[in-house]
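Q: Structure tokens for this one, please.
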Amino acid sequence: MPDHTYHTRLFSSPLTQRISALSTHPRRGILAALITGIASIAAAGLAGCATVDVTVPGSIAAPAAFSEAPAEGAPAAQDLAQWWQNWNDPELTRRVTETLAANLDLRVAQARVAEARAIGQVAESALYPTLSAQARAARGVADLRSPPGLPDTSPGLEGHLAGLTVAWEVDVFGARRSDALAAAAVALSAQERLRGTRLLIAADVAENYLAARGLQRRLQQLDRSTEIVAQLLSYTRARYAAGQALSYDVDRVSEQLGALQAQRPVLTSQISIRERRLALLAGQVPQAAAALSPPPAFFVPASPAGQVPSDVIERRPDVRAMAALVSAQAARLGSAKAERFPRFYLTFLGQDGRLHVDGLPALSGTGGLVGVGVQLPIFTAGRVQAGIDAGDARLQAAQAEYNQTVLRTLEEVDNAYSQRSSLDQRGARLADVAATAQRNSQNATRLYEGGRRTLQDVLDARIGALQRADELIQTQTAQALAAVQLYRALGGAWPGDPESARH
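A: Here is the predicted structure, written as tokens:
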């Protein structure tokens, strides 16, 4: 967002076209003539329209590249708009799609957009004339007392009056135009915040879903290890009954089995917490949360390559929302500066009426009034300048917030790339370590059965294999969550989201 000058300029008004239909009525020739006069005056005013310049402070220049982005990875054209589909997991895709259609936070954001657009229409309406009509009718009886010797009379009275009023502030110096532009920018900011909310909701669903999948895989690994240790306990008890093992050996294996079994309730509880969170995000009652299906094999998409800072800044909804707010503050400052100049008003009043009294000729007539007004601020005790100063301060603050948002974006992307890269490396190494620990455990069991290792060796190897496998699963889960964070940092669902398609 480089330095630029914001101009508030009055656009060509279609006043003449909007009111030309009034001249078609045969009894309103005088009204049409007077309204046409207003249009002519307005056109003359528009011909001399002025501009109010507002200089917006410069912003931070984006670097050429991210320092932590990989040289190779997923192609740059990888789907960022529907990034959750890159997992090739139908259940994840279904849950994200259903949540984006039913999430209550999104409905709130959508209502905010509708509100902002309506406010924008209100502000834009101030650019055009207002036309109103009024009509009155009356009927009655007059009780007239005649002089002595003459009968009293009660003549009937009836009458009607109809009129047309046109009022317009000719926005010569762009104050109302600036107000309309500010409202439109606020509506655009609300739209970008809606897109940002969609991105956050989709990421929240993906994070909870992938975390739950990781917990499921940990639970599966725990159950397998528990089954193996339970078999070892049965084997040890048989040896103890045959006099080939000590009670210490039985107690030791029983202790390890109990420790493994104690971990299960914690994992199942954490899975239930994630399931309830997913239900809440989808606008459902948490107590009716649907259970997850068995977890698929672990998979995480490659990190998107080819992303450059300038593209990310243009794509991020929060950055775009702040840029729109900067434009809104610039427009408001333009409106405040326009308050230093005169304001011009055009008014027209046309009326047609009739009055009839029994026994007398009816009276009728048509009349019109055209008014031109000007309001020039001469002494305001510093109010106008204070409004300008306040608007300038708000613009400076908005620009600073925009710059801070850009800096935070650049930080988040590189942090996400770095986190993902380190977890990928850790996951690759832990996969080798876990495979080695599993072989160790199997070898220790065979050697123990052959009398060449102690029971303690078997237990240590088994517990070590479980710990290495659990560390690997947790790291893989962290890889998946880091991938979600990276997609979110890159801006996610833009520009191919449904909101963009509709607008």
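A few notes: Confidence is low (pLDDT under 50) at residues 8-48, 498-503. The two ends are 23 Å apart (CA to CA).
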